[in-house]
Structure formats: C-alpha cells, structure tokens
Amino acid sequence: MKKNIIFLVLILIATNLIACGSSVSIGDKTPYTEVNDFPGATMEVIEVNTDEEFITVEFSYSGPNELSYGTSSDEYEIEFFQNNEWYTLDYKKYDAMGLGHSVKDGETHTEDYRYTRYGKLPAGHYRIVKRVLDFIEAGNFTEHYLAAEFDIE
What we know:
Layout: H1 2-20, E1 26-29, E2 41-49, E3 54-61, E4 66-70, E5 76-82, E6 85-89, E7 100-103, E8 108-114, E9 124-137, E10 140-152
Antiparallel strand pairs: 1-6, 2-3, 3-8, 4-7, 4-9, 5-6, 5-9, 9-10
C-alpha cells in the first residue's frame, strides 16, 4: 500500500513538472450550457495564487439535502472566456484519487484546485466548472455543475 501511495505521488509530481512550462491550448466551446442551477448551492473563487498555480474556491449550501463533491482531477475543468464565449482548455489527463465531501445546510467548505495540468495560464478571464451532486440519500441524487469566474493578471 505504501509503495502505491509513493508511486501515485511521484506520478503527480512528474505530471505537474511536465505541465509547468507548457502553453495553454484552447479547445471547443463549452459543453456546460446550464451552470449554477442548484438552488441554495454556490461556489465562489476566493483566492487565485499564480505563484503556486492554484485557486481556492468556497462552496456554500442552504437547503434540505447535501451538496456533495469530489476532489479528483476529473471532477472540474478550467475554461477561458474569449469573444463573448466560454471555451474548454485542453489538459494533460492523469488518474488521481480524490476525496468526497459534503456540505450540509448552512455550511461552507473551501477547496484548493491546481491548474498546472493546463500549462501556464496567460492573463485573461477564466472560470472553474465543478461537478456537484444534490445528495438526497444513497443512490438518490441529481447532478449539477457550478461555475465561478476569476482573472489571471
């Protein structure tokens, strides 16, 4: 087990080193036509750290169920705003286990998301799009996408 954890950490470090000097590649128009449609759930970018290349987001929820989200790399995307449209950014895919979190009525949680897998983000207007669940009970949930905008200067 310990060898697996060490191997996973080495893969993540190597992936981040490879992506650090890469330029950003703009992909297709966003597939996320409906975001922020989960009543009582919000996500806000509260910090952009360009030195260490991560953003901190705050999730808050007010409602009868739970807002659930994961932290793995396939649970979020960074998009670029250009010509009044949102575009996906191509990124290096890698497998990484994430943790599951839930936010109950009246709670807030913060989470850091690295953007090194996209390469060096140039100055511009971006958003993070995050998959979340309206969790009612085991096997009973609705999928939503939250988005929060931020700028790189």
